[in-house]
């Protein structure tokens, strides 16, 4: 089997390594089958899509909707590299799955409106399959309503014509979409469990996701509902596209 590629952007080693471990766990891949590249640490360089079965993009602290003058040189480089890669991914309809920050990369590439209108505090929310989502192979075995981990300062507020809405939310309308047949993006975190998202809560306590003094409330918020279905989306992606 050709490996899958995980493009990561977390600068902090503990949440970065835990993210990788969670992707390994929920995809069912081994370290040799899921190659990680930490884009915050080094340039992406040339990528030959034919070397891989598919690509994952994880979450991170970057926001696509930040004004250019507020973006660091690293963020601008990473965005340019991922956008260039997406040119080929979209053209070939190559298997791609972006989670949280990943939805911003695909959305921005396709011309979605991304802003702070539907930001959500770190928590667990219930989200709902659309009719298109119920027919999609990655969601076929999911219940119509399921719990998911969220926490984001920006979101897609208007989808481009190229995107098909698969999962909607009550407080954030665009929770998952597909471009073509094989390019997916989620606003929620399918790669998380309670322990993993708790690590991120502590690591990003001063990044503006919640107010000072709300650490304990936020840690409690991710335990208010059991999240049991979302990890299966990643495994079905791997089963579908491994080659």
Report the span from N to C terminus. 5 Å
Looking at how many chains there are and whether they match, the oligomeric state comes to single chain
What structural class should be given to the helix and strand makeup?
Answer: alpha/beta
Order of helices and strands: EHEEHEHEEHEEEEEHHH
Overall tally of domains: 1
Strands, total number: 11
The biggest sheet, with number of strands, parallel, antiparallel or mixed sense and barrel status, is:
9 strands, mixed
Q: Kindly identify the CATH topology.
A: Rossmann fold
Instruction: Tell me the Rg in angstroms.
Output: 16 Å
The side-by-side strand order for the widest beta sheet comes to 2-1-3-4-11-10-9-6-7
Question: Uncertain regions: pLDDT < 50 for 5+ in a row?
Answer: none
What is the tally of helical segments? Answer: 7
CATH level 4 superfamily:
Class I glutamine amidotransferase (GATase) domain
Give the class-level CATH name.
Answer: Alpha Beta
Average pLDDT score: 95
Share of residues in strands: 15-25%
Outline type: globular
The helicity comes to 25-40%
Protein name: Glutamine amidotransferase
Domain Glutamine amidotransferase: 49-192
Pfam family, one: GATase
Keywords: Glutamine amidotransferase, Transferase
């Amino acid at each position: 089997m050709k490996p899958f590629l995980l493009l990561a952007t977390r600068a902090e080693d503990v949440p970065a390594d835990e993210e990788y471990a969670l992707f390994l766990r929920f995809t069912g891949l081994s370290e040799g089958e899921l190659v990680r590249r930490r884009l915050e640490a080094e340039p992406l360089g040339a990528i030959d899509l034919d070397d891989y079965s598919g690509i994952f993009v994880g979450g991170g602290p970057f926001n696509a909707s930040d004004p250019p003058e507020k973006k660091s040189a690293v963020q601008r480089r990473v965005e340019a590299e991922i956008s260039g890669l997406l040119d080929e991914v979209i053209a070939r309809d190559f298997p791609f799955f972006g989670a949280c920050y990943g939805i911003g990369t695909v959305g921005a590439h396709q011309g979605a409106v991304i802003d702070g209108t539907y930001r959500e505090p770190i928590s667990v929310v219930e989200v709902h399959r659309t009719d298109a989502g119920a027919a999609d192979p990655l969601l076929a075995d999911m219940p119509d309503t399921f719990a998911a981990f969220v926490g984001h300062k920006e979101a897609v507020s208007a989808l481009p014509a190229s995107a098909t809405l698969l999962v909607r939310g009550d407080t954030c309308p665009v929770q998952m979409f597909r471009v073509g047949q094989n390019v997916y993006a989620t606003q929620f975190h399918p790669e998380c469990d309670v322990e993993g998202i708790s690590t991120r809560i502590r690591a990003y306590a001063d990044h503006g996701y919640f107010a000072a003094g709300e650490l304990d409330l936020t840690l409690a918020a991710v335990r208010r509902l059991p999240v049991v279905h979302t990890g299966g989306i990643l495994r079905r992606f791997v089963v579908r596209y491994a080659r």
